[in-house]
């Protein structure tokens, strides 16, 4: 997302690394159309690789001050993989540096607007959301989408994961936004319906945590296939056995990684989003 005033343009989140070149070109083209603008800040709502994977490329091409949630500032600048979690989720992310922190409870100018910064653990323990109280505009990251929310990894790794997601949704309810710019999908205004659906999805996962573990495996495997396009069954097994969160999900389900792989492939095939062809698994979107 871009926000700008007459002089400066700020960017919120930068997409996944496989689209980094496209992200750079899109910004270049926007700046060519608006020659009075200079790049200023790059803000990350949370450090999942599909939200900060373009940081490195943008920083190489443009003058940008990078802001990350305060709790991520040191881990990013020392690139501590065990704290950043890219490896745990089995996702690549090019190394980047942050120059500033986003402090929950404070606010920040983005373009012409003044946004409040709120902590929203759940989907990501250190995630923040940005709320502009005048317009009642919410940048919700992956805490709330028009239909649902981002995979609840914390439902596997954190005993309070479901509760944290619930309090983050409660916070959104309390802020009562008129329009939401989510981390995925188009902006939406029927926030009541989205919140209702999100709470009901959360209720379901909380009551059936094994379904959450299966969902996490499906989401991450599908995401990996989206950038690998196709892999062999052997490669898939290596991924299932070596991706930390997946091994935790298998343990949580009391099955082997191989069994989780079979179940995941079966469910995704049934949903029509991947296809198994002999010993290959092919992404369909
Ligand atoms: Zn995310």
Walkthrough of the structure:
By secondary structure, the chain is an alpha/beta fold. The protein has 2 domains: 2-207, Metallo-beta-lactamase, Chain A, CATH 3.60.15; 209-283, Orthogonal Bundle (Arc Repressor Mutant, subunit A). It has 12 helices and 13 strands. It has helices at residues 20-33, 49-52, 55-61, 73-77, 81-84, 154-157, 161-175, 191-207, 209-228, 233-242, 244-253, 257-270; strands at 2-4, 8-12, 38-43, 65-69, 100-102, 107-110, 113-119, 128-132, 137-141, 179-182, 230-232, 274-277, 280-283. The strands form 3 sheets. Strands 1-2-3-4-5 form a 5-stranded mixed sheet, with no helix packed on it. A 5-stranded mixed sheet has the order 6-7-8-9-10. Helix 1 packs across helix 3 and helix 8 (191-207) packs across helix 9. It is globular and about 55 Å long. The model has no long low-confidence stretch (mean pLDDT 96). Zinc ion binds at residues 46, 48, 51, 123-124, 142, 150.
């Amino acid at each position: 997302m871009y926000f700008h005033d007459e002089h400066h343009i700020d960017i919120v989140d930068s997409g996944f690394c496989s689209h980094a070149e496209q992200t750079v070109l899109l910004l270049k083209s926007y700046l060519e159309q608006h020659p009075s603008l200079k790049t200023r800040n790059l803000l990350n709502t949370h450090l999942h690789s599909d939200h900060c994977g373009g940081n490195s490329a943008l920083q190489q091409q443009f003058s940008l001050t990078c802001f990350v949630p305060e709790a991520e500032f040191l881990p990013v600048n020392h690139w501590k993989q065990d704290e950043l979690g890219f490896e745990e989720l089995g996702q690549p992310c090019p190394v980047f540096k942050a120059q500033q922190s986003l402090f929950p409870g404070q606010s920040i100018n983005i373009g012409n607007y003044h946004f409040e910064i709120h902590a929203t653990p759940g989907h990501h323990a250190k995630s923040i959301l940005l709320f502009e109280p005048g317009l009642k505009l919410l940048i919700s990251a992956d805490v709330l989408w028009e239909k649902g929310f981002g995979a609840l990894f914390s439902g596997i790794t954190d005993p309070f994961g479901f509760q944290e997601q619930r309090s983050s949704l409660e916070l959104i309810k309390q802020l009562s936004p008129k329009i939401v710019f989510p981390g995925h999908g188009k902006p939406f205004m029927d926030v009541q319906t989205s919140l209702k659906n999100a709470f009901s999805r959360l209720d379901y996962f909380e009551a059936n945590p094994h379904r959450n573990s299966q969902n996490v495996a499906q989401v991450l495997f599908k995401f990996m296939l989206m950038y690998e396009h196709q892999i062999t069954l052997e490669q898939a097994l290596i991924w299932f056995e070596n991706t930390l969160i997946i091994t935790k999900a298998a343990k949580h389900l009391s099955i082997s990684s191989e069994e989780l792989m079979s179940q995941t492939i079966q469910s995704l095939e049934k949903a029509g989003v991947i296809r198994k062809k002999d010993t290959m698994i092919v992404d369909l979107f």
